[in-house]
């Protein structure tokens, strides 16, 4: 089957490390929403019976699964139809990875044009995944969104991981097992007309950080 004949969620779904069945199901829904965290989580919260929500301690795994199953079986949200923003000639892509101490990791990306967000994205990466891999996944997430949503003349990538910077743009060999992200990252970068990277210091604001943190929280869901 041609990729464009697949459901939108299947086309958007990105590779992930090991996730619990519940976190995997949430990730499937995020793909349907093109990894826009806020509308996806709002939809889950509205579908959960009662006053709970995705991160409410009183919401059971079964309730979350039921809500997600109902949403996946419904029509794609109107705002998630195939759309692009071709007017943005220069964009800034913020990326960040986040991992809790015991391993749940998430990725975040924010695309801006003229300081206005085009997309705020987040996703779980793995339930036992370190921060380095999450940083690669974040860059992959952002570049994939750029490839499908806009056609910029130039991109500035703002990133705080020197591990990723040295591997992707440097001359040194990385010891981090980054597959399946690194090859896709290289392919996306080679398709851009022009791009540059900026290293963010710890004190620099990074709007992708909040998205990555929520992604890590989703990766911690389970074992339902």
From TrEMBL:
It is an enzyme of class 3 (hydrolase). CDD domains: RNase_HI_like. It comes from the Archaea. Keywords: Hydrolase, Plasmid. Pfam families: RVT_3. Residues 87-217 form the RNase H type-1 domain. Its EC number is 3.1.26.4. This is RNaseH. It comes from Haloarcula marismortui (strain ATCC 43049 / DSM 3752 / JCM 8966 / VKM B-1809).
């Amino acid at each position: 089957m041609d990729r464009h004949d697949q459901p939108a969620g299947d086309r958007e779904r990105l590779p992930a490390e090991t996730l619990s069945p519940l976190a995997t199901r949430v990730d499937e829904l995020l793909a349907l929403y093109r990894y826009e965290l806020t509308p996806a989580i709002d939809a889950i919260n509205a579908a959960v019976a009662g006053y709970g929500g995705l991160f409410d301690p009183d919401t059971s795994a079964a309730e979350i699964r039921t809500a997600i199953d109902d949403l996946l079986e419904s029509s794609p949200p109107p705002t998630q139809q195939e759309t692009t923003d071709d007017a943005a000639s220069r964009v800034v892509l913020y990326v960040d990875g986040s991992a809790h101490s015991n391993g749940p990791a998430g990725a975040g990306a924010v695309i801006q044009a003229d300081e206005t967000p085009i997309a705020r994205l987040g996703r779980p990466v793995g339930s036992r995944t370190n921060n380095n891999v999450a940083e690669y996944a974040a860059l992959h997430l952002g570049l994939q969104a750029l490839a499908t949503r806009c056609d910029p003349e130039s991109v500035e990538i703002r990133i705080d991981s020197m591990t990723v910077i040295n591997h992707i743009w440097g001359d040194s060999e990385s010891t981090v097992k980054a597959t399946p992200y690194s090859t896709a990252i290289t392919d996306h970068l080679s398709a851009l007309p022009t791009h540059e990277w900026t290293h963010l210091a710890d004190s620099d604001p990074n709007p992708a950080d909040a998205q990555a943190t929520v992604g890590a929280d989703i990766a911690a869901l389970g074992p339902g």
